[in-house]
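Sat 14:20. Reprocessing the chain from the morning session after the first attempt stalled halfway. Input below, unchanged.
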Amino acid sequence: MSRHHLPRFILKFSLGLIFAAVFAAATATAQSRVEVQQDARAYARIGKSAQILHETRGKPLTLKEAESAYAKGLFSASKDDVPNFGHLAPPTWIHLSIHNAETAAPYRIYVAQGWTGRLEAWLRRPDGSVQTWHAGLRELPAKDLRPGVGFGFDTELQTGTSELFIRVNSNASAALDMRVVPMPLTAAMESRAEAWNGSVHGFLLALILTYALLWAALKDKAQGRYVLYVTMYLFMHVGYSGVGSLWLWPNDSHVARAMILSGMALFASSGLWFSREFLDSRSWAPKLDFKLKWMTRIVLTFMGTVIAFDFDRIALLLSFPFLMLFTLLEVCLGILAVRKKRDLAGIFLIASSCRLTGLVITSQAVVGRIPFNDYTFRAVEIGVLIEATLWAMALGLRLRRDRIDHVTAMRLAQSDPLTGLFNRRGFLNVAKPKIEHCQKMGLPVALIMADLDHFKTVNDIHGHEAGDAVLIEAAQRFKGAARSADVVCRWGGEEFLILMCGMSRENAIDFAERLRAVLAEKPIVLPDKQLANLTTSVGVVVDSESQHALEDLLHYVDAALYSAKEAGRDCVIKSTL
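Finished this time. Tokens:
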């Protein structure tokens, strides 16, 4: 390049740098300014348009000092859609330039989630007027609070650019979920949050009511502890979602903070308490169960103390770690139970893992380690709902198995294990209602008792195995001869009893003869392949008027059977009432 053209090149290069710097500055200004929208774009988070300044602890800034710091360029640009500074962060200033190109209109400026400690905000309008707000959990918890959305300040944005300064002073992590929404669009946004909260609360209340009724009826400890666990999560959710602050303790900041922190401690401990009972850890890991029991008591006592004395910083530092620790212990307990092959341990482990996953995601989002959005914030709610559903299903499966086991036990208790017929107890339980029904309907009742002749001889000659084979075959033949509605039982030893409703005297005697014939007409094959020819003596009693109790009928039929034995066996004798 010639010496003549060098000054011209330097001039062009300098002008290019100046133009690039001006363009970059203009672009940065445009990006840092919030352009208000009149449609669904207004729901977008505006955290990246904010400028942030952290105070030095012990040296609070006034609004004038913060404005001066902003003018000097001491604020730094936010890099997150939802700025979050974690627990115990120093007081922080946020600045937003909000530009309204339309005519003046009412807007709601959403600032931070409902658990934020203190919020102060100043809006300097284009005409120079200033609007101020004071809100937060440590102020009046219900003031400017929109449950499920956070604190929202109502204002009228004039045409032009308004400067918003917000001071956040919160020991708890403050998720600055900021948006500028036209007033007509706020109802749709807040109604979605209310619908979600209503769905969660309704689902949890349904589980609580269902299993509370089951627990009241069955007195099952696991069901009672499940009810407590779901109740504690509902209690915690009502606290941190803002529903409690709005409806239950609107003017008590101490109660509002205590409910959130105590809800976390109670939820964590009740989950572990239920886990120990459901998995019955005391039976297969008594030492571990004992340690978990006392750990729960110590943690609850300690958390209760720091919350009662308003040691807010300590409680905040420990609340999430305790919740995480107890959930992790549940998962570890589930893994041990699976290895021990405990009943339904697999379902329990999957459920606990869902809560742990959701808790990790939400806790990291709340303290600012991962992006805060609807999905990361709701992750713990979704995880707990899945866990509660799976645990409810597991309790239902256990209840169903217990019911099946109970029915099986009752059936076994009323059945003869050798022949499969009713035993004496089962017969009495079934026969009495049948006789009462016949009495109401005016139907005759027949009772037939059969005794295998010379059965002792079979046992003595061929052994007890052969005797059992004879009893089984006789039971099958008697059962096959009877009607499906008749009650057939092994009364004891080699005696069988048959109750027949609606059977006349003549038909009962004919049936007794058939009963005697089905045993005598065909030999019974014994286990050693030998044949045994058996006969049976039969007693019959018929109550044509249905006026006698079962005890009376048993007395008469026993007497008739005795007479058949005395008459030489292999015959039918009818008793007269």
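The first helix runs from residue 6 to 32.
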